[in-house]
C-alpha cells in the first residue's frame, strides 16, 4: 500500500497514461478542466466511465460542471449519476486502484493555490469485496444521455437566474432533478451477463478466497444478479436462483419474446444491436463476444424453454415444443 499526499494530479495522470483498456472514476464532484486533462492523458482506445453525484445547487454554483458530459460524450466516454455517492475511487483496467479523499477538481487534486489537503492510497491487489462493491455502484448508477442533459441544463439555467429560494423550494427542485435522471435503462450492454457460463460463474464464486483476485466479469455478474450476499448448498440451487434473476431481467424478457420461432446466432446479434440503447451503438463485430455469452446462458438456463440445435455451422435456438 502506498499513500500519496502531494502532487495528486501527477499520480493520477501517471496511472491514466499506463492504462490499456478502461478507467472507472468515482467522484462526487467533477470539474471540466480536470476532465479535459484526464482525457488528454489516456490512450485513444481507452474507455472512461465517470460516476458523480450531481446536485442542481452545486451545478449552478460551479462546484461541479455540467459541461463534463459533452466533453466525455464527444470522445465516446460515459457519465453516470449516483445520488448517494460520497467515496472517491479511481480504477484502472479493473486491476489497479487509487482511493482516498480527493474529488476530480483542482482543489481536490492540488492544481490551484487554495487546494485542499487530500490523500490518495494505492491498493494492490484490490480486495474482492471492494471490487464487487464498486461494480454494484456502477450497475445501479444512471447513465446520462442527451435527453437528460438537455433537461437538467434547463433546470440549472433557470435556478441560476433566480435570486434565491427557500429550503423547501430547493428540496423540491432537487427532487425533480433526481426524478429526471433516475430512470433505469435496462437495455445497455452492461445489463447482460459477462462470465462465459453460469457453471463457470458458480465455480468462481465458491472458490473466491480473500487472497485471490476476482475477475472483473465475475464481479460484474455478482453485482448484476445480486449474488454477493447469498450462499448455496449446491450447483442446482445456485442455477435455480440465477435462472430466476436472469429471466426476470427486462432485457432478457424482451429477448425471449423474440425467440418465437427458430433463430440463428446472427439474428440474435442483429436483435441485440437494434434493441440496445448504448451510444454509440456497438457494431455487430463488437457485439460478437457479448452475444456468444448471452447465447450460452440462454442455452444453459433455458433448457425448459428452448431447444438448441446446430445444423452444419449454424447454431439455432427455438421455442421448446
Question: Which sequence of strands runs across the widest sheet?
Answer: 1-7-6-5-2-3-4-8
**Which shape, going by the Cα principal axes?**
globular
What is the gyration radius calculated from CA atoms? 22 Å
Q: Which spans of ≥5 residues are poorly predicted at pLDDT below 50?
A: none
Tally of extended strands? 11
Largest sheet: 8 strands, mixed
Residues in helices, as a percent range: 40-55%
Please identify the top-level CATH class of the largest domain: Alpha Beta
Number of domains: 2
Mean pLDDT rating: 93
Q: Helix- and strand-based class?
A: alpha+beta
- Kindly identify the CATH topology of the largest domain: Endonuclease, Chain A
- What is the number of helical segments per DSSP (H or I, 4+ residues)? 14
Assigned CATH architecture of the largest domain = 2-Layer Sandwich
Query: What's the order of the H and E elements?
Result: EHEHEHHEEEHEHEHHHHHHEHHEE
Care to give the gist of this entry?
By secondary structure, the chain is an alpha+beta fold. The chain has helices spanning 8-17, 32-40, 56-61, 68-73, 106-109, 128-139, 146-161, 167-181, 198-206, 216-224, 235-247, 250-258, 265-275, 284-301; strands at 2-4, 22-26, 47-52, 78-81, 88-92, 96-100, 120-123, 142-143, 263-264, 306-309, 316-319.
Amino acid at each position: 500500500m502506498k499513500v500519496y499526499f502531494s502532487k495528486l494530479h501527477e499520480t493520477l495522470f501517471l496511472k491514466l497514461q499506463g492504462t490499456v483498456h478502461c478507467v472507472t472514476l468515482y467522484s462526487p464532484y467533477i470539474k471540466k478542466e480536470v476532465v479535459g486533462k484526464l482525457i488528454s492523458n489516456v490512450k485513444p482506445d481507452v474507455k472512461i466511465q465517470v460516476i458523480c453525484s450531481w446536485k442542481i445547487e452545486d451545478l449552478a454554483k460551479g462546484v461541479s460542471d455540467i459541461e463534463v458530459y459533452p466533453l466525455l460524450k464527444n470522445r465516446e466516454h460515459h457519465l453516470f449519476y449516483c445520488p448517494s455517492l460520497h467515496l472517491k475511487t479511481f480504477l484502472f483496467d479493473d486491476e489497479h486502484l487509487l482511493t482516498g479523499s480527493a474529488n476530480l477538481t483542482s482543489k481536490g487534486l492540488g492544481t490551484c493555490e487554495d487546494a485542499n489537503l487530500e490523500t490518495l492510497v494505492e491498493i494492490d491487489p484490490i480486495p474482492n469485496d471492494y471490487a464487487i462493491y464498486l461494480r454494484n455502484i456502477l450497475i445501479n448508477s444512471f447513465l446520462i444521455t442527451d435527453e437528460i442533459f438537455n433537461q437538467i441544463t434547463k433546470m440549472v439555467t433557470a435556478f441560476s437566474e433566480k435570486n434565491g429560494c427557500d429550503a423547501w423550494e430547493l428540496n423540491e427542485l432537487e427532487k425533480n432533478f433526481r426524478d429526471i435522471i433516475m430512470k433505469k435503462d435496462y437495455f445497455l450492454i452492461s445489463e447482460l451477463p459477462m462470465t462465459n457460463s453460469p457453471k463457470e460463474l458458480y465455480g468462481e464464486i465458491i472458490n473466491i478466497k480473500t487472497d485471490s483476485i476476482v475477475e472483473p466479469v465475475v464481479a460484474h455478474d455478482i453485482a448484476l444478479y445480486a449474488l454477493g450476499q447469498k450462499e448455496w448448498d449446491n450447483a442446482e440451487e445456485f442455477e435455480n436462483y440465477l435462472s430466476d434473476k436472469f429471466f426476470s431481467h427486462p432485457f432478457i424478457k424482451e429477448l425471449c419474446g423474440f425467440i418465437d420461432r427458430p433463430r440463428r446466432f446472427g439474428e440474435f446479434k442483429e436483435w441485440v444491436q437494434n434493441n440496445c440503447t448504448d451510444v454509440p451503438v456497438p457494431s455487430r463485430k463488437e457485439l460478437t463476444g457479448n452475444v456468444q455469452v448471452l447465447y450460452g446462458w440462454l442455452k444453459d438456463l433455458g433448457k425448459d424453454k428452448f431447444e438448441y440445435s446446430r445444423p452444419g455451422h449454424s447454431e439455432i435456438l427455438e421455442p421448446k415444443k
